[in-house]
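Record type: monomer structure entry
Structure origin: computed from sequence
Chain ID: A
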Amino acid sequence: MSICFLGDQHGNISNFLRVIDKIEKEHNPQVYFQLGDFGFMGEGFLKFLKNVNKKMKSINKNIYFIDGNHENHNWLRKNQIDDLTFIDSNVIYVKRGSIITLNEINLLCVGGAISTDRKYRKLNKSYWEEEGLTKEEIESITKNLLKNKKEIDLFVTHDSPYKLDGLFNSNYFSNYSDCLKAIGHRKALQHFFDLSKSIINIHGHNHKYYYDEIVEGNNDNYYKNKIKYIEICLNCDDGKGQYMIFSKELINQFKEDNYESVYDYFLKNKEKKK
């Protein structure tokens, strides 16, 4: 029983179809989960949705997704019904802050991010204020996490939490105000991550495949230290490393603090991506 996570697709239907065919042939996961910037923006997004649903229907599987920053947030919120909203028969939008269980894996799902190039985009046309977490969302998600009794296996996001992501660079932003908003957004994600008590975060947004980890303890005895956070970033459309297969067994392996097994997995995965 496994879940296949996909990085940013940006409405690239030819890439999406090619990657799904490859994954089906090599891995045959039970379900798919896309990490935001799927393709729900621009004039062609309804056609993209139709083609995605047609593909998923043909293989008799569902694809779940969270929102990224490059989505039509007005449209998504207008069509949102509950924590899980069937946008089409096989395409399911996951509301920010939802805790869902897929194939025995408990996921905390939080979409959204702040665009680096807002200055050059048009409000409610190529970016939306709702791309970032609102104060009300932060308060609501915090309350739900404080009441949550489930063990969270994976923290699933579009952007990366504040203590992770060595790629974050203020120079990427078109103005300082947007940079501060992005930092605030990532601090909120870190707050959720800590409350969830999960140690694994998987996200997109940075258009690069990489993994990293933060440990507690003395670096002189690195392999005896305790893993505090594991970060996995998936690449975007047409990039290598744009998907990853997760099973309950793999998650348990990561949780066992076995550095050799964690490194071994990513080393093999990296070699496959070359």
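Annotation 1: The mean pLDDT is 87.
Annotation 2: The chain is about 35% helix and 20% strand.
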